[in-house]
Amino acid sequence: MNRLGLLVLLTVAGLALGTWDNCGGTCGLRAPLPAYHPMPYYYGNVAYDYDMTRVVGGVGAVEASWPWIVSIQHPGTRLVHWCGGSLISAEWVLTAAHCFDKFENVSMMYVVIGATQLSQPGPGAVVRNIKQVLMHHYYKQIDYSYDIALLQLDHPIQCSPYIQIACVADPTLIVSEFDNCWVAGWGATTARSQDSSDRLQEAKVQFIDLQLCNSSSWYAGEIHPYNICAGYPQGTIDTCQGDSGGPLMCQDKKADYWWVVGLTSFGKGCARPNYPGVYTSTQHFYDWIYYNMHTHYAAESAS
Q1: Each residue of 17-33: b (16+ CB within 10 Å) or e?
Q2: Strand 92-95 relative to strand 201-208: parallel, antiparallel, unpaired?
Q3: Tens digit of each residue's pLDDT (9 = 90 or more) over 102-137
Q4: Is 147 a catalytic residue?
């Protein structure tokens, strides 16, 4: 499939699956923003947890910089950001399977879409519950193999300047040629720090050769063939706890749109030399993503 076809594939898939969006058949684009007016952030009687932490070595993202990124949160006495994810259709989010190792009742979790600052997400943010989680059937917690999952939202969203659908890298792309790649999330500042920032953080990263990343003085064989290593050999900039499931994004070299090429999966510590972030390649699992979105819609339609 060519790149033009991929630009509309997942959006068209969403339309075929009985959902509606106003993204105009596009993905991976940033829309112009109206004037921003902060709004208070409440879920009924549950207050939001301000104790957010962030990408190591990152900077605060501009409002709606990454309009497909979502915050997956779980409730308690207060709501807590847990993982990131990427909106890939009007009702499906792509994330990491290990985000659900500790949660059995996913219907109690929230997905916040269209926010940059979680305590004041603005007029474009929406909240959804999770209808179901589809984890890869080969996923293993012990080694983060096949660390990918799809979340179906309890009801579809509509696109806006704050909410857009991500482009998922397909097998025809030469991902290694991309040179403007970024990570974003609300994860930890360092492996030990709990300093909070409820604004989405972003950082530019570089691809690191998989063979080097898997060498004896680096990850020593722990990297799977469908992983991507990204960051810097010297460390300093990296994803960390809480960024899991969030996107590794690269700008197309010939257009304005962005591709989600990876999902934050694992690492040793955060921002340590010779231990860059490890990501699940979305390109490798492209067919799995599309098949599961389509199959589960067909099953629902038949029931």
Answers
A1: bebebebeeebbbbbeb
A2: unpaired
A3: 887 888 899 999 999 988 888 899 999 999 999 999
A4: yes
Write down the catalytic residue from 244, 265, 281, 284: 244
Residue 98 annotated in active site = yes
Q: Which of 98, 160, 265, 284 is catalytic?
A: 98
Six-digit token string for 239: 């994803």
